[in-house]
Amino acid sequence: MRQVNAKLIEDAVAALVVEANIVLRKDVLAKLSIAYKKERNRMAKKVLGILLENAKIAKNDKIPICQDTGFPVVFVELGQDVHIKGAELNVAINRGVLIGYKNGFLRKSIVSDPINRKALKYTPAIIHTELVRGRKVKVSVLPKGFGCENKAKIAMFNPTAKLSEIKDFIVDVVRGAGSDACPPYIVGVGIGGTQDYAALLAKKALLCPISRRAMVWQPIAKAIAKQSKLEADLLNRINKLNIGPMGLGGKNTCLAVNIQSYPTHIAGLPVAVNISCHALRSATKII
């Protein structure tokens, strides 16, 4: 059994919070650069150039990419041969979030009471913990801005639903978001499981590199090929919406579509969509 001091996790989370908020992921930055080179709409190209410049300034000057520094969502893959000592895992994570947000001069965005909405705080984070094989702890921090989080949708389809209906739903979610969630978007899709699990899959899909296909449940080549085609078809349809960067038109409404799937019940077919703005921010560390 490997002993891991909770302070290591706390320190890692504190650093990841700052990194995620000021350094745009390499895969997202690469896709933005490709979009800029290919864009022919003059205003859209100008906006993409501004987004690239904004990312450069944020990294060089160590300031947030966006004024909305997000709701901290933390994903933990905890090795089953690890024992955390010194503090509870969730306590260490929330301490790290608090320290990171304070030291990084990041905005308070959390209200303790979602109805009365009074004092602003840095915590608590949303924490998802998964037990896996091994002696390591993998921590990923996803600060989720709420301009795009507000556009998330879920639908409970009949099990007899056609693939065309599911595609229409996903595209319509993006159409409904319009320019409000700061395109170009990255679209995470969760298919299967239960209502709550489909929503989690859609968010986890945003952690996957957008330069390659997201992981599926079934390790079968045929299923992977079908999913890759579905992601490509959806990306093509979404980009034909002509919403474009910040709603100014052009061919780059969406940079990528990532799908995660899971087995579901014979009587249902949950489909969830979670949209990220162009500033898809996450950072990961293995302890």
Task: Describe this entry's structure for a reader.
The structure is a single chain. With 287 residues, the protein is an alpha/beta fold. The chain has 2 domains: 2-22 and 65-144, no CATH class; 146-280, no CATH class. It is 39% helix and 25% strand. The chain is built from 8 helices and 12 strands. It has helices spanning 6-22, 26-38, 42-61, 89-103, 146-149, 163-177, 195-204, 221-239, and strands at residues 2-5, 71-79, 82-85, 110-111, 120-121, 126-132, 137-144, 153-157, 185-193, 254-264, 269-276, 283-286. It has a 4-stranded mixed sheet with strand order 6-2-7-12. The chain has a 4-stranded mixed sheet with strand order 8-11-9-10. Strands 1-3 form a two-stranded parallel sheet. Strand 4 and strand 5 form a beta hairpin. Helix 6 (163-177) crosses helix 8. The longest helix has 20 residues, at 42-61. The radius of gyration is 19 Å and the shape is globular. The protein starts with a strand and ends with a strand. The model is unreliable at 214-221 (pLDDT under 50).
